[in-house]
Amino acid sequence: MLTRRNFTVGALALAGLAASGLRSRAVAAPDALATLSDGQLVLPTDYVLRGIPDAALAEIGVDRTALGATHAAACNVTLLRGPDRLVLFDAGAGSNFMPSAGKLPESLEAAGIDLGEVTDVIFTHAHPDHIWGVLDDFDEVPFANAAFHVCQAEWDYWRSDAALAEMPEDRQSFVIGARSRFDAIEDRCTLFTPGKEVLPGIEAMAAFGHTPGHCAFVLHGEGDPVMVVGDAIINDPISFARPDLFWSADQDPQAGATTRTALLDRLASEKMRFVGFHLPRGGLGRVETASSGYRFVPEA
Ligand SMILES: [Zn+2]
Question: pLDDT per residue over 34-59, tens digit each?
Answer without folding.
Answer: 999 999 999 999 988 988 888 999 99
